[in-house]
Amino acid sequence: METDDPHRGVDPRERRARRADARVDEAGAEEKPPAPTLLDDFLSKDRRRVLHAVWEVFKTRDPKVLEPLAAALPVIDRATDDVDLGGALMSNGENLTHALDRIRLFGKGRCLCAAYTDHVFYEPRKEVAYGHVRIVEVVEGFYYGRPKRICECADCGQRYEIEEGEYHYPWWKWTVPH
Ligand SMILES: [Zn+2]
Fold first, then answer.
1. 132 and 171 in one domain?
2. Residue 30 — pLDDT band, cuts 50, 70, 90?
3. How far is the CA of 138 from the centre of ligand 1 (A)?
4. CA 158 – ligand 1 centroid, Å
């Protein structure tokens, strides 16, 4: 039977959330402005906020975070074009470019592990903590006494070799094994 229920086919958790929203609207009490989103940060022209958004994008694969950014990518591109982001050892402009590349990869439906080979700031320990990869093997003393790790992407199973080193800052070089 057809009904006009706007919630038809909506997940029950979502229904509860909508009802809660409606209550807040009716009460009109909770008029705190919403917290700025990462999109707001990217468009802010404020160096600190733009960089905050950049680092958040570096560490997430969450579609809820990345979808709105992918939809707004041309706007972000234009808005960030003339912001001086500075950066002493590595230009923050390069970090911004990489964050936008990550969003682009997501928009194309690619697995975000594809971004690892393009940047030296992906620390395997953190990627494991985020649940993005698991360490398959550690080869001790591989490069100047430092280990080489083999990691496997938790989403697509792609394997990477990671060398690490330090030159002004710690770096990790991710490559696809031959
Ligand atoms: Zn992957």
1. yes
2. low
3. 19
4. 5
Whether 17 is covered by a domain: the verdict is no
Give distance in angstroms: CA of 41 to centre of ligand 1.
Answer: 27
Strand partners, 170: 166
Output the six-digit token pair for 58: 């570096």
φ, ψ (nearest 5 deg) of residue 109: 80, 15
Helix axes 47-58, 63-71, angle to 10 degrees: 130
Q: Which residues are CB-neighbours of 161 under 8 A, at least 6 positions away?
A: 148, 149, 150, 174, 175, 176, 177
Tell me the mean pLDDT in the region 117-146.
Answer: 93
| Domain assignment present for 3 | no
160 - beta bridge partners?
A: 151
Structure tokens belonging to residue 91: 């230009």
pLDDT tens string 64-96: 999 999 999 999 999 999 999 988 777 899 999
The backbone torsions φ and ψ at residue 52, rounded to the nearest 5 degrees and listed phi first, read: -60, -45
CB contact at 8 A, 137 and 149: yes
Say how far apart CA 150 and CA 175 lie, in whole Å: 10
CA of 131 to the centre of ligand 1 (A): 11
User: Residue 104: which domain range?
Assistant: 32-110
